[in-house]
Design goal:
Chain lengths: ~725, ~325
């Protein structure tokens, strides 16, 4: 039986506050953690299948043009080589998140350097890799490839906001800033590379892959292969990080599938680290203009945020830079707009916190400059500009803890609200400074189903195709079921990442916990209801704890009530009117202290505090870890991370983890995370909001502001590498 | 990766003979060579494993220390004699790579590590070093890591390492066994070559040569500083580095041995800098003059222009550190 919850009204019953087990929110360790750290969690490429062949993708060494022919003979006599796959079903790009259809095929048409054009299949990986390097092909390179977004044609994205007269507001303002920022491209840089093993039994295609959203991916794969969805099964029980790069079906999945069907043997395709960098999604670089106008009290009267981003031709995704700028602060005169330039770099798509990851740091850096001009403490300036309702749509906000986060974060960090002049503090050759930024990330949910079985022995089984990309899904779904059904989490077995289970939206857009968690919750409510009816008890009068049901002064073991029978329910969560009726978002605040070297401009973050309102905390440990991880990304995007593209042929030059600089342990200081108590019934029936991305939405701005406060270097280009800091550093 | 044969050298002479074969390459820790083989940048037909050779000790010699070619970077940096008398070397090694890499990396392999030029490691790009005559992708491309000193129009790559920069300041000597059984010594300062018209040649080793050791001269007095400027605090190559040994008496500099990393195709040593500094009193003006000498012929390639002011500042910082001058 399926129980449906349609989210047309906020669910403020706060059911999980009235249950008795007491495990919801507890910092329980992930159940699969031991498997992972002992190497016993099997990742996509690690399954051992008899007779498995190895495929290596061949990629284009040019950015635009046409592959005319591929000379299979050039490698067919090499040891171990079985076949060169050039099938027209091969995919040139990865699918965008939630695309739900095959990504671009026809790999002969090349639009970016490094695009896959064929797959070489051999008996061993080394043989396939060697042959892939030796494969000869004939191609015609077009001379009109474009790599510079500023020089390319661009289109304005739908949904721009034009309200009032911003130019006038800027003129009338008591304080205003008009600033240009840039951010470089980012890579997801997940630890596990994209990898697949496909098997074809003559009827059904089974693929172990590293993917985030199986319910979409199965459609994308079936569409690419020309198969019925019912003939495809995808499995991703463990995913070694995704950060957006595994939202859509990737080229390895389709290539392995085509090869397995053609050759009748299992085929494994693992992308090299370089291929992951060169052919999977990038976060677009951006240039942004921020215009902020304020009155004498620091209240915003004008708000402008415009951005230029880029993508390949015919890609719908445009980095939604202004997403949270739409509603974070007030200001009646507004311009918000995104332009997309069409260039020949690999697909731009979702990388953790698309939009806010780069839009919020620029906005928050501009707010710092406005605070300085207005002579108002930057925390106070933010507090004064929290709008009553959505500034352009007029909708009410659901629960919003921005003010609390700013205040509690400031207190914990020890924010000094006195005058803020650069170069006030120095230790040896280091200038020390502090900065603040707000955090915001829109809240998303998606339709989700999950099957929960209360077994006759009193334990429970949760099944859904939802993925755990290292975020803690196994932990929280077990906790929700344990809390609702009255048992310890150890008594709940959670099975994930298999399309044979009821489907959900997968992991992405920070929506997994709220969506799939709600589906589990709905199923459990239905089970509890059935128990109540078996007992003839009122549903609200029933308490389940430690395997015992209590009602109306009576108690009975649940196993006795079940009497040898299991109860199975499918919970079905469907987003509804609340999505339109409320502006729902997660909020927070970042505080950073940095040291900037007087000589070299090297910047090290010394400590960071983040305070976040994410609705109900489902597991204090995994939520905190998400926030910490986000804050580490803030350090990377503020100081080091940048995709470097060759200006001549457009190829990505720093395509490994030695040269694409994510922060290392030593770059990550003491970090404090405060999770502000919150319930948001408009966000989900479990009152939880997204947490996976919030931790990186703005923090790079706090670091930029701290650099200025430390040494007086006001930078407008991220990342703030030593050379850039030095160039902006005022003379001693 | 091209299929290859593997041989384990039992004795030094044996190793020399094996390595002398065209298509054969020595492998020590493998942390550089194996990466390049996977990328098909290096395609040896045979790997000659040096691992069994008795070159893995640090011994006292001629008043200094002889570090065997197979001593790992971790052991060198942890050696009490090195930490005590040559702290510069320990610091430089610890400023490089990561603990895991240093556990495998060896003295000989570290000296011979190849450039990190992005175009060198991508076989679909032109590179005169990898494929002489094919052109230089970096000159018009992303030259962020690249050299500002001693470049040629053929190649602007840097020698990326840290250990050798310290050895250069220390004026250490590389001991080499030739394939024909001969031995010779080459100062570290002369071991690496400038690119000129033959960027494929990075050092003086000939076919069949094997590095057996590095000889450190007797310890000298003075402050020893290794300063490495990098984008992140570990696991990044130098944007610029300075190795400095500076001694003073009565407020006057009596010794100044300096070497620079990240600026050229070799650890950079300019004897004029020492000559300028010795006999002078430390001052920021003096350090600026030293930088004038260092950067006299510096040339940026756009992307790496920042290295010119950065090297000046890093030099001043290192000299302030070494002399106790505060800016
Ligand atoms: C991600 C990464 C980051 C790094 N960061 C740094 C850094 O910050 N600073 C730094 O200094 N280094 C850094 N390194 C480089 C590291 O120090 C070198 O890889 C290492 O020192 C090489 O030593 P090996 O013994 O592993 O050499 P191998 O890989 O075994 O050999 C390298 C070369 O030396 C030759 N060779 C080895 N031994 C001998 C010998 N006895 N005689 C003649 N030829 C020989 C080989 O034929 C080969 O050409 C980094 C490396 C990596 C992978
Ligand atoms: S700088 Fe040297 S190593 Fe780099 S591409 Fe040019 S020739 Fe090759």
């Amino acid at each position: 039986m399926t129980a449906l919850f349609k989210h047309d009204k906020p669910d403020n019953r706060n059911v999980l506050d009235h249950t008795a087990q007491g495990i919801i929110g507890q910092p329980l360790t992930r159940p699969e953690g031991i498997l992972k750290v002992t190497g016993n969690a099997t990742y996509a490429a690690e399954y051992a299948f008899d007779e498995c062949l190895e495929g290596v993708l061949v990629t284009a060494p040019f950015a635009k043009g046409q592959v005319n022919s591929i000379d299979e003979k050039s490698v067919s006599s090499m040891p171990g080589v079985i076949k060169v796959i050039t099938d027209k079903r091969l995919t040139a790009r990865a699918a965008q998140g939630t695309a739900n259809e095959a990504p671009k095929q026809n790999v002969c048409e090349v639009h970016y350097w490094g695009q896959p054009i064929a797959l070489v299949v051999a008996e061993t990986f080394e043989q396939a890799r060697d042959a892939a390097k030796h494969l000869k092909f004939d191609y015609t390179e077009d001379t009109d490839a474009i790599f510079d977004p500023e020089a390319a044609d661009s289109e304005t994205e739908d949904g721009a906001t034009q309200q009032g007269d911003l130019a006038h507001a800027m003129k009338q303002a008591d304080a205003s800033v008009d600033l240009h920022y840039s951010t470089e491209g980012h890579a997801s840089a997940a630890m596990e590379p994209h990898a697949s093993i496909a098997q074809w039994d003559g009827d059904t295609l089974t693929v172990h892959a590293s993917l985030q959203m199986l319910n979409y991916n199965i459609t994308e794969l079936a569409d690419a292969m020309g198969l019925k969805e019912g003939k495809v099964r995808l499995l991703s029980p463990f995913v070694g990080g995704g950060f957006g790069s595994k939202l859509g079906v990737s080229q390895d999945v389709v290539a392995a599938s085509v090869a397995a069907m053609e050759l009748g043997r299992p085929v494994r395709v693992v992308m090299s680290r370089q291929q992951v960098f060169q052919t999977i999604m990038r976060r677009s670089e951006t240039t942004q203009r921020l215009r902020l106008a304020a009155d004498a009290d620091g209240k915003l009267t004008g708000f402008g945020h415009e951005a230029l981003v880029s993508n390949l031709p015919n890609e719908e995704f445009a980095e939604p830079v202004t997403q949270s700028s739409e509603f974070l602060y007030g200001g009646e005169n507004r311009v918000l707009q995104i332009e997309v330039a069409r260039i020949n770099r690999m697909t731009a798509g979702s990388v953790r916190a698309p939009g806010e990851a780069v839009g919020m740091p620029a906005l928050e850096a501009a707010m710092d400059e406005l605070a300085e001009k207005a002579g108002i403490d930057p925390v106070e300036l933010r507090l004064r500009n929290i709008p009553e309702v959505h500034p352009s749509e007029g909708t009410p906000f659901s629960s919003r803890k921005l003010a609390e986060c700013l205040k509690e974060g400031a207190a914990k960090f020890g924010w000094d609200s006195g005058p803020r002049t650069p170069r006030m503090q120095r230790e040896g050759e280091w200038w020390i400074g502090t900065g603040v930024a707000s955090a915001a990330r829109v809240h998303n949910v998606g339709e989700a189903k999950a099957r929960v079985t209360l077994q006759a022995d009193g334990t429970a089984l949760v099944q859904t195709d939802m993925t755990d990309i290292g975020t803690g899904t196994y932990a929280i779904l077990g906790q929700i079921a344990g809390e609702m059904l009255g048992m310890s989490r150890d008594d709940v077995l959670v099975e994930l990442g298999d399309t044979k289970h009821p489907r959900g939206p997968g992991s992405g857009g920070s929506w997994g916990a709220a969506s799939s968690g709600s589906a589990v919750f709905v199923a459990c409510e239905a089970i509890a209801e059935e128990i109540a009816s078996l007992l003839g008890a009122a549903k609200d009068d029933l308490t389940l704890k430690d395997g015992i049901a209590s009602w109306g002064g009576q108690t009975r073991p649940v196993t006795e009530i079940l009497d040898g029978k299991a109860i199975t329910k499918i919970g079905h969560y469907e987003p509804g009117d609340t999505e339109d009726d409320y502006a729902a978002s997660s909020y927070g605040a970042f505080f950073a202290e940095v040291a900037v070297n007087q000589w070299t401009g090297e910047t090290r973050v010394r400590r960071m505090t983040g305070a976040f309102g994410i609705g109900r905390v489902l597991n204090e440990k995994t939520a905190r870890s998400q926030c910490l991880g986000g804050m580490v990304w803030c350090i990377g995007s503020a100081l080091t991370e940048s995709l470097l593209f060759d200006p001549v042929d457009g190829h990505l030059v720093n395509c490994d983890l030695a040269e694409y600089h994510v922060p290392v342990h030593r770059d990550v200081p003491d970090m404090d995370v405060i999770l502000v108590e919150e319930r948001d019934g408009a966000a989900s029936p479990i009152q939880a909001k997204g947490v996976g991305e919030l931790g990186m939405c703005g923090g790079a701005g706090a670091i930029a502001n701290a650099i200025y406060n430390a040494c007086g270097a006001r930078l407008h280009d991220f990342p703030m590498t030593p050379d850039r800091v030095l160039a902006a550093m005022p003379a001693d | 990766m091209k299929p290859f044969d593997y041989q384990r050298a039992e004795r030094l002479e044996h190793a020399g003979q094996l390595v002398a074969d065209s298509g054969a390459m020595a492998i020590a820790g493998g942390t550089n060579l194996l990466d390049l083989m996977k990328l098909q940048v290096e395609t040896p037909a045979t790997l000659v494993d040096l691992g069994a050779l008795p070159l893995d000790t640090i011994a006292e010699a001629d008043g200094g220390l002889r570090i065997g070619a197979l001593v790992t970077n971790t052991l060198t940096a942890a050696d009490a004699r090195i930490r005590g008398e040559y702290p510069l070397l320990a610091r430089a090694i610890l400023a490089g790579a990561t603990q895991q890499l240093r556990n495998k990396a060896t003295t000989g392999g570290n000296l011979c590590q190849r450039t990190r030029c992005y175009y060198f490691t991508n076989i679909d790009q032109p590179c005169n070093k990898r494929d002489p005559g094919s052109g230089c992708g970096a000159i018009k491309g992303i030259a962020r890591l690249h050299a500002i000193l001693g470049t040629s129009d053929q190649c602007i790559a840097t020698y990326p390492g840290d250990m050798a920069v310290a050895m250069c300041a220390l004026d250490a000597t590389v001991e080499i066994a030739g394939g024909d059984g001969s031995t010779r010594s080459v100062p570290v300062r002369d071991f690496h070559l400038l690119p000129g018209d033959t960027p494929q040649r990075e050092n003086v080793l000939e076919d069949g040569d094997i590095i057996t050791a590095v000889l450190l001269p007797p310890p000298v007095s003075g402050q020893q500083i290794y300063r490495k400027v990098r984008e992140r605090s570990s696991y990044a190559f130098a944007m610029c580095s300075v190795a400095a040994i500076v001694d003073q008496a009565d407020g006057t500099i009596t010794r100044a041995d300096l070497a620079f990393g990240g600026l050229a195709h070799k650890p950079w040593h300019d004897p004029r800098i020492g000559e300028l500094l010795v006999g002078a009193k430390p001052s920021l003006t003096l350090f600026d003059k030293a930088a004038d000498l260092l950067l006299e012929n510096a040339q940026g390639y756009g992307e790496n222009d920042y290295k010119i002011p950065l090297a000046r500042r890093a030099l001043a910082a290192a000299l302030c550190d070494a002399t106790g001058l505060t800016a």
